[in-house]
Write a structure and sequence with these properties.
single chain, Alkaline Phosphatase, subunit A, globular, 27 strands, Jelly Rolls, alpha/beta
Length: about 550
């Protein structure tokens, strides 16, 4: 009788059918390890050299994480492969590169993209393909263009789906041309026919230059935007390779929200440290230490290094220097015995300093998070693997180099294991731990190269223990992180919640929820005025990419 009365009282006061205690708010620790391979981890933990990895794998669930292959759009010398900034953005957004916008190691600063149009035959014609357009009528197509100076002012015919819709006068100064159009099913085609073109100094025949194209609906909402560099797949015949002022990947290039922004929208506290492409830092529901904060030459002179901006000054004293890392360099057998190795080892030293800095920041900030999601990104494995992985697998070492250089790769994993332990010790309470990598690495002649499978390790409440699973891709990480924190998963994500890593009872009590959520990330660039972020080019970041062979 007492139980019945109590239940009735609870229902009357709370408007619910039970007095079950509220489930405690969750804490998730997300660790990104660039280039980490599960087979390397297994080899070294079998030797007893990775106790932290070993403990997490034995008490949690692990498996290979399939990467995402793509062809960079700016780096002509790179083939289709598993390229870190592209894959890390897919990990954060749960989307393929064509949707999230990051499609190379370097991308143009927004607003600097342009592409020349022209052809050897006259009249020059340039064609573009657009998707089916949905929006309130009428639809307005706008293009920012100018005629090639030597060609002079000219008339341009604009054909929409094969029909002439307008003939406009194009001057040699930038201007915006707008025409009303009607969308066709599936796809739409634009053809520009130029009255004149002229030979440029480089030998090409040029008619005009296009900066961007946009379609707005009758309500004034932009429903399609074409950047000739980032969406070059829409360009057809009559276009030369596009160009722009190139910089390292920045937050301004992201077109989709990462999981930490979606969590913040759901009211979940977040803390982000060092994730690739997060400078300039932008508002989040917590704090963000951007990708430029870790290396002194990159943060010097840069603003918006953190969110809130005052955080940069607070964590600045934590920054280590080469003297602090001297014992680490010695353990890793970092050597300058080979001329090509000198540049690469110089980059490795900087990345080791960066990773140590991020770990120190984690030890400072993580204890202050009682719930929510904390993320940290460490890059040392990838940077160590490119110049040295082949030596681990028996390839000849250069004359004059010590035999110990064969151990650089192994010792880097051992150092990562030490850092993992330091981060785990900073947790304020029990948490779910998720560790992923963007790709693995394999030995090739002269170094190491990206391989198609990275790793996924997870340990915590509701997760299977001591098991190995398969069938996951980098697109599944963001949906799974959202699910772990009780947030809705956007239907437009290309990945899925990794249901197979959870106990069946847990899944029965915590069914994944999918919802129609707008995941557009709109971080605006400004050349002047008050709205948007200023940006610049980090020569230090570009030099790192050059040394590692990613750009020429």
């Amino acid at each position: 009788m007492l139980f019945t009365r109590t239940l009735a009282a609870c229902a009357a006061v709370l408007g619910v059918l039970s007095c079950a205690p509220k489930e405690p708010e969750r804490l998730v620790l997300f660790i990104g390890l660039d280039g980490a391979s599960l087979d390397m981890v297994d080899d070294l933990r079998a030797e007893g050299r990775l106790p932290t990895f070993d403990r997490l794998i034995r008490s949690g669930i692990s498996g290979p994480l399939q990467s995402w292959a793509s062809k960079p759009i700016m780096s002509e010398h790179l083939r289709r492969g598993f390229w870190s900034p592209i894959v890390w953005t897919s990990i954060a957004t749960g989307k393929i590169p064509e949707k999230h916008g990051v499609r190379d190691f370097v991308l143009p600063i927004p607003g600097t993209s342009a592409v020349w149009m022209g052809a050897e035959e006259d009249p020059a014609r340039a064609t573009m393909t657009l998707p089916e357009l949905h929006g309130q009528a009428p639809l307005m197509l706008t293009m920012r263009m100018h005629s090639f100076g030597s060609a002079g002012a000219q008339s341009v015919q604009l054909l929409w789906n094969g029909e002439l819709v307008d003939t406009v006068q194009l001057e040699d100064a930038w201007q915006e041309i707008a025409v009303e159009v009607t969308s066709a099913p599936v796809r739409n085609t634009i053809e520009l026919v130029f009255a004149r073109q002229a030979r440029a100094k480089d030998g090409r025949k040029l008619a005009a230059e296009l900066s961007w194209l946009a379609v707005t609906d009758g309500a004034g909402e932009e429903i399609f935007h074409l950047d000739p560099v980032l969406q070059r797949e829409h360009l057809g015949r009559g276009f030369y390779p596009p160009r722009g002022q190139l910089t390292e990947v920045q937050s301004l290039h992201w077109r989709a929200k990462p999981f930490w922004s979606l969590l913040g929208d759901a009211g979940v506290p977040v803390g982000i440290v060092g994730y690739w492409g997060t400078w300039p830092a932008y508002p989040v529901n917590g704090f963000l230490v951007s990708s430029r904060m870790g290396i002194r030459d990159q943060r010097a002179g840069s603003s918006r290094l953190t969110w809130p901006e005052t955080l940069a000054e607070e964590i600045a004293p934590l920054a280590p220097d080469a003297i602090d890392l001297a014992p680490t360099f010695e353990r890793l057998h970092v050597s300058e015995c080979d001329p090509p190795l000198i540049e690469q080892q110089s980059v490795l030293k900087k990345i080791l300093i960066q990773d140590e800095y991020y770990v120190r920041v984690a030890r400072e900030l993580l204890p202050k998070m009682d719930s929510g999601m904390f993320s940290i990104y460490l890059r040392s494995i990838d940077v160590a693997g490119h110049p040295t992985l082949h030596w681990r697998h028996g390839q000849p070492i250069p004359e004059g180099c010590p035999e110990s250089v064969r151990d650089i790769m192994d010792e880097t994993y051992v150092q990562i294991d030490r850092w993992l332990q330091e981060i785990l010790e900073a947790l304020p309470r029990r948490a779910t731990v998720v560790i992923v990598s963007d790709h693995g690495m394999r030995p090739i002649e002269g170094g190491g190269h990206h391989a198609p499978f990275g790793l996924f390790i997870a340990q915590g409440e509701g997760l299977r223990r001591g098991e190995v699973f398969r069938g996951s891709t980098v697109l599944d990480v963001a949906p799974t992180i959202l699910y772990l924190l009780g947030a809705d998963v956007p239907l437009e994500m290309d990945g899925k919640v990794l249901a197979q890593i959870f106990e069946s009872n847990w899944l029965a009590q915590h069914a994944p929820r999918y919802a129609d959520i707008d995941t557009t990330l709109d971080i605006k660039y400004r050349e002047g005025g008050e709205d948007g972020f200023e940006t610049d080019v980090s020569e230090e970041a570009l030099e790192q990419l050059r040394v590692l062979g990613y750009i020429e």
